[in-house]
Specification:
It comes from Heterodermia speciosa. With 282 residues, the protein is α/β, with parallel strands linked by helices. The protein is built from ten helices and eight strands.
C-alpha cells in the first residue's frame, strides 16, 4: 500500500491539526473540484486512475475513495508526517487500490511518464518552491488526453488573516511590511491560465470563487494562527520578531482586528477566503 520515506518538511508539525482546522475550509472546495473533473472526464471510466500530488492529509484521496472505491489512487507529498496521516486514514477506512509515497513534487521520479489519467493538486502549487517545475512534472506524468484538476488560493497573502495581521502590526510599527506568502504567478486566474498553457496544457478552464471560513470564536483563530505552526503564519511571525518586536504585544491587537472584520453576534467569526479552480487537458 505505501512507501514511507524520511523526508521532513516544515509542514510535518502541522499534519494532525491541518485536517481538523483547514479541512473544514478546503473539503467543500476539493469536493467541487473532484465533481468538476468527473463531469469532464469520468473517474469511473475504463482504465481510469488518479494521483493526488501534494496530498496533505488526504482530503482529495478521501473524496475519491468514498465515491469511487475501486479507482486506483496514488497520493504523494514531500512531508512524511502528512503521508503518515493519509496512511492511517487509509488503513482505518479499508481503502483498496491505494498507494502513498513521500516525493518531492519537483521530481516525481518514481511516477512513470504518461501513467496518470486524472491528476489533482490542491493548494500546493501557490505555496511551493519552483511551481513551474512542479507543473512541468505533472504534465509529464499525465497521459495524453488526461485531465488536471487544480486549486490555488487567490490572494498572495491568503486573505483571511492578512488585513488583521498587517493592521495590528502597523499600530506598533508603521514601517512593517509583511512578506508575500505565495507566488503571484500562481494565484490570479489569468496567471494560472498562462502558467498551465506554458507547461503545455490545453483546454484550460478557470473558476474564481470564495469559501466562507467559520470559527467558533476569536480564541480559536488566534490559537491556530499563533500556535498552530502553519509555515505561512510562521513566516509572518518571524518577519515580526526579527525586527525586535513582540508576538505577545501584537496578538491582542490581531484578535481585535479579526473581531472587527469577521465577528458575528454570537461571538463566532465568519469571513471569505478567495480561491481559484482550474481544469486542463494534456
Amino acid at each position: 500500500m505505501s512507501t514511507r520515506g524520511k523526508n521532513h518538511s516544515e509542514w510535518d508539525s502541522i499534519s494532525t491539526l491541518y485536517h481538523t482546522v483547514v479541512g473544514q475550509l478546503t473539503i467543500p472546495i476539493a469536493a467541487g473540484l473532484v465533481d468538476w473533473v468527473h463531469e469532464t472526464v469520468p473517474l469511473n471510466g475504463p482504465g481510469a486512475n488518479a494521483m493526488d500530488n501534494g496530498c496533505g492529509t488526504g482530503i482529495v484521496c478521501s473524496l475519491l475513495k468514498s465515491n469511487y472505491p475501486t479507482l486506483p489512487v496514488l497520493a504523494t507529498d514531500f512531508s512524511s508526517a502528512m503521508i503518515d496521516e493519509v496512511l492511517r486514514n487509509a488503513e482505518e477506512s479499508g481503502w483498496k487500490h491505494f498507494q502513498a509515497r513521500v516525493l518531492d513534487s519537483r521530481n516525481l521520479d518514481s511516477v512513470e511518464t504518461e501513467s496518470v489519467t486524472h491528476l489533482f493538486t490542491t493548494f500546493m502549487i501557490c505555496l511551493a518552491p519552483d511551481p513551474d517545475q512542479i507543473v512541468s512534472e505533472m504534465h509529464r506524468v499525465l497521459q495524453q488526453n488526461g485531465i488536471l484538476g487544480l486549486a490555488v488560493w487567490a490572494r498572495p497573502n491568503f486573505g483571511f488573516f492578512e488585513a488583521a495581521w498587517i493592521e495590528a502590526c502597523h499600530e506598533l510599527d508603521p514601517t512593517y511590511e509583511a512578506p508575500t506568502l505565495m507566488d503571484p504567478e500562481w494565484i490570479e486566474p489569468e496567471n494560472v491560465r498562462r502558467g498551465l498553457a506554458k507547461a503545455g496544457f490545453k483546454s484550460v478552464e478557470i473558476k474564481a470563487e470564495q469559501q466562507s471560513w467559520d470559527w467558533e470564536n476569536v480564541n480559536a483563530v488566534s490559537t491556530y494562527f499563533f500556535d498552530g505552526h502553519n509555515p505561512g503564519n510562521t513566516k509572518w511571525h518571524d518577519s515580526w520578531t526579527e525586527r525586535g518586536q513582540s508576538i505577545d504585544k501584537v496578538r491582542p491587537l490581531f484578535e481585535r482586528k479579526l473581531e472587527e472584520a469577521y465577528g458575528q453576534s454570537d461571538g463566532s467569526l465568519k469571513g471569505p477566503v478567495p480561491f481559484c479552480l482550474a481544469i486542463a487537458r494534456k
